[in-house]
């Protein structure tokens, strides 16, 4: 019965968000073959400019089209891919697929937008990440200004990663800090980092209109971002109340179910044709 439901039901797989030992073992085994068997797909979630409602970017989010389990969400397999090191080839596949897709959409005449790719710590730690990415950009012909890389706060804070970050910024790639505010870290490191954008974590957005403390933290983040000349995006916006609060407090961009859920690639052309601006809008930079 579960198998039947699994075919078309995303939700079911939220139940494996914390897979047990047996499930993890099973996932680990089949994950090894998933790349060769072309079981991964990318969905894209639009990022909207507050006020204009225009789509300025998309976030690429991986899904695993498992032969028996149906569509498996990244929460169920990314940590396992990190443990096993499989995240390196998987991550490279994501980058290549996204750059090729982005170039193809542009060549089809769609308004160009930035596409953001999530990087894992393990990927960042590999040697010559910048060279690898340059190779992918050259192969696919994508202009680097259309590529954005999302890193976590903990990745951003490690000084061993800073040279790579500098290299990527010099290549004109946009760098954003994902899930901002969820790690115990000081704001002051923001002033040294070559980043363009911060993404307020969904857990704070959840508290809008419910918890004045979350609202206070969001307002502080918005203020810091504005003064450091960083673009700021709020993740996980689900309600009109949350949207209005963010608009009122001059958040730049939002991403969330209130506008769009992550979409399969073939839904994107129509969405971009109807909602993306004709000219590309360059992200801010504090460096
Ligand atoms: P993330 O990068 O913070 O991505 C945002 C997550 O929030 C996505 O979950 C997205 O579907 C979900 N989301 C967006 N809007 C809403 C909303 O309004 N409400 C709620 N409840 N959720 C919303 P998803 O796709 O399951 O991805 C989970 C995490 O997996 C991502 O979090 C990211 O850390 C990781 N991930 C996804 N794709 C990749 C990838 O290609 N490589 C790596 N290394 N990690 C990835
Ligand atoms: Mg992300
Ligand atoms: Mg996030
Ligand atoms: Mg995340």
Automatic annotation (TrEMBL):
The protein, known as: Uncharacterized protein
Membrane-spanning segments: none
GO MF annotation list: catalytic activity
Sections of the chain in a coiled coil: none
Superkingdom per UniProt: Bacteria
